[in-house]
Amino acid sequence: MRIANFILLIALIVFLGVGSAFGQCAMCKSNVTSSEEGMKLASGLNDGIVYLLFVPYLIFAGFALSIYVSVKRKKNWLNLN
């Protein structure tokens, strides 16, 4: 149950931070929105930024979960002997 609460807390922190990820740097935004075609691409650029931000968190969560499970199994195995 602790791991579920921990994952929920991390997910909440990440999702609360996503709103600020939609803000692009000033140079990128001015270059993209300077043309009519660029206005259409701005939405895709925002999605790409969020995607690039989210992937490292998923990788880290996977490593952390695998280490946690490994330690927990080892601890249970030692208690059985």
Question: What does this protein structure show overall?
Answer:
This protein has 81 residues and is an all-alpha fold. The protein has one domain. Helices cover 89% and strands 0% of the residues. The longest helix has 45 residues, at 36-80. The protein is rod-shaped and about 70 Å long. The two termini are 25 Å apart.
Q: Calculate Rg over CA atoms.
A: 20 Å
* Largest pleated sheet: none
Unreliable stretches covering 5 or more consecutive residues: none
- Classify the helix fraction into a percent range: over 70%
Number of domains: 1
Strand content range? under 5%
Q: Say what oligomer this is.
A: single chain
Number of helices: 3
Task: Write a concise synopsis of the structure shown.
The protein is 89% helix and 0% strand. It is mainly α and 81 residues long. It has one domain.
Characteristic terms for this protein:
transmembrane helix, 3 helices, transmembrane, rod-shaped, membrane, 89% helix, mainly alpha, 81 residues
Sequence-ordered SSE layout with sheet pairings:
Layout: H1 2-21, H2 26-32, H3 36-80
Helix pairs in contact: 1-3
